[in-house]
Amino acid sequence: MRNMKTLLLGFVALLFVGSVFAQTIDEGKKFLYYERYKSAKDIFQKLSNANAADETAAYYLGQSMIGLEDIAGAKALYLQKLSATPNSPLILAGIGHVELLEGKTADARNKFETAISLSGGKRIDVLNAVGAPNSDPEIKNGDASYAIDKLKLATTIKGFKDPEVWANLGDAYRKNSDGGGAIQSYDAALRLNPNYARAIYRKGRLYQSQGRMQENLYTGFYNDAIAKDASYAPVYNTLFNYYYETDVPKSAQFLEKWLTNSDDDPKACYYRASMQYAQGLFAQAITKATDCINTGGNNVYPNLYGVKALAYNRIGDSLNAKASYEEYFKKQIISKVGAGDYSSYAMILLKFPGNEAQAASYVEKAVALDSIEANRVIYLKTLANAYRTQKNFSESAKWYNQVLSVKKNYSNVDLYNAGYDYFRAGKFDSSVAVFTKYTAKYPEDIFGYYMIAKANGGIDTTLATGLALNSYLKAIEVGEKATDKTKIKDQLVGAYTFMMQYSFNVKRDQAAAVAYADKALALDPTDQQSIKNKEFVSKNDPNAKVTAPKAAVATKPKQAAPKK
User: Fold this and answer.
1) Is residue 245 included in any domain, yes or no?
2) Counting beta carbons within 10 angstroms of the beta carbon of residue 559, is it exposed (0 to 12), middle (13 to 18) or buried (19 or more)?
């Protein structure tokens, strides 16, 4: 009986230890859920130390390191574990995650497929470990369609009841531009757990990506997520960033809430420096970021260099701004570099002659990365404006023209910017192409026809082919229908003056030339050039082959933008 009692006590002890172990894994996963990666790492490190063969603890330890942006540490851990247990599906999936972050998409896919194969495609945790990094919107190398396939498979496995998988599936649909599928998946997660704040928060992120027109909707989801779980830190982080540019005091409030519900890790130090930048305390932001870097040891948060770069730029120290950005790009993993980083660095590079081509390449990267139309337009216009300031109209026109391909509903000003700078650069064919788009969208606006005529005049400078003739006539036709001609006086006078010249020099028709001169004077009776033109064509016989004087508007229109 005594031996039996001992065995029973030992069995109970094992059950108790197993229960505590399971709870501890769940506790670590909960910290991951709240994005408290330092706390999660501490737990999984202890668990992994206690049982080096446990793949679950090792996998989540690596995930904690990835959350802390210690990619090298996660990679070293996974490779060490894999050498001891080469057939561990979770560790293989973890290595695949790291390889996605490194841009090694083919290698990552191989690891994912091997992990699924070794687990027979029947382990929910493995399928989720494969789907999660591929569905992550911040990992550009991830394959959303692949994630959808594997995560959907996970939901069909017997005993499935994990809202995290549904939330990841929602992220995959969102990444795949399937908003309906994303919402259905987030709702499925909430059916399993109505208080699953992450799914509510992710709904808000989905609608926020569609622009500020949905502001009431996505801020409503954020508030709902907070109401369900006030400890869910990611929502405070998003609201901090959301108000960062428009309402600094409100942004600061959300920053404090985020810090209260987060670990004191290198990111916290970065956000404090970032808030000083937002408050216009640029020198203090540089000092704070430098302190954070100096105390960060081997785990410096790369974004600190980005804050320093921006702050240096704001105080006019372009050299240190450039150096800080170069350090940022060295230390930041490629998948974490944002479109705004590339664009900001490009603008700094333009301050150093000889870097124009490199700056343009960074703007192209920014445009390719950003899915928000308004942001992409800003990147392109900022570069175009920089070239326009340098009076490099050929390059400014090129980048303004790219706005037309990015912006779904471009305006007359967008067309003007591209077309007019092509004109100023002497690229008349390109100018005609842009202003032809102008006339197609704004057929009742004289400006497009007038600029087509001006550009064609740049090609046919001797009037030999009459290339500009029809466009000038169309400009006159449209302009004469306008009820208020004061706003288009310059264009109409220019068109009348051309037709006066053409009638006199090419058609040898004095009466027509005088008639057009009269029309120009009717719009502005005091214009001295028009008065001289009228006097000349009235007193001289065009058939005597006398050359007419220069026109009132000889080369280009007023530089003011057309009406918006």
Assistant:
1) no
2) exposed
Domain that holds residue 486: 444-564
What are the structure tokens assigned to 109, written together?
A: 């896919």
Where residue 514 sits, what CATH number does that domain have? 1.25.40.10
Q: Residue 347 pLDDT more than 80? A: yes
The 8 Å CB, 24+ separation contacts for 366-372 are: 366/339, 366/340, 366/341, 366/342, 367/339, 367/402, 367/406, 369/140, 369/338, 369/339, 369/342, 370/339, 370/340, 371/209, 372/209, 372/211
Per mean pLDDT, which range of 260-264, 318-322, 510-514, 538-542 is the poorest?
A: 260-264
Give the integer Cα–Cα distance in Å for 93 and 126.
7
Q: For residue 289, what pLDDT is reported?
A: 95
Q: What is the pLDDT of residue 463?
A: 82
Distance of CA 446 to the CA centre of its chain: 35
Q: Residue 54 falls within a domain, yes or no?
A: no
Please write the tens of the pLDDT for every residue from 81-99. Answer: 999 999 999 999 999 999 9
Answer whether 94's CB lies under 8 Å from 56's CB. no
CA distance 389 to 392: 8
pTM: 0.62
Q: How many domains does the chain have?
A: 1
Asked if residues 299 and 329 have their Cβ atoms less than 8 Å apart, the reply is: no
Q: What one-letter code names the amino acid at 357?
A: A
Across residues 510-520, what is the average pLDDT?
95
In one-letter notation, the amino acid at residue 137 is: P
Do the Cβ atoms of 415 and 404 come closer than 8 Å?
Answer: yes
Query: How many angstroms separate the CA atoms of 31 and 340, rounded?
Result: 30
pLDDT at 536: 95
In a domain, 57, yes or no: no
Which whole number is the average pLDDT over 296-307? 86
CA-to-CA distance for 557 and 278, rounded, in angstroms?
42
194 or 338, greater pLDDT: 194
What does the block give as tokens for 100? 């996605």
The tokens describing 404, both together, are 């037309």
Task: Let me know how long the chain is.
Answer: 564
The closest of 441, 438, 523, 509 to 476, measured between CA atoms, is: 523
Judge whether 47 lies within some domain: no
Find how far residue 279's CA is from the centre of its chain: 24
Residues whose CB is less than 8 angstroms from the CB of residue 167 and which lie 6 or more positions away in sequence, other chains included: 185, 186, 189, 196, 198, 199, 202
Inform me whether the pLDDT recorded for 8 exceeds 90.
no
Angle of CA points 433, 394, 317, to nearest 5°: 140
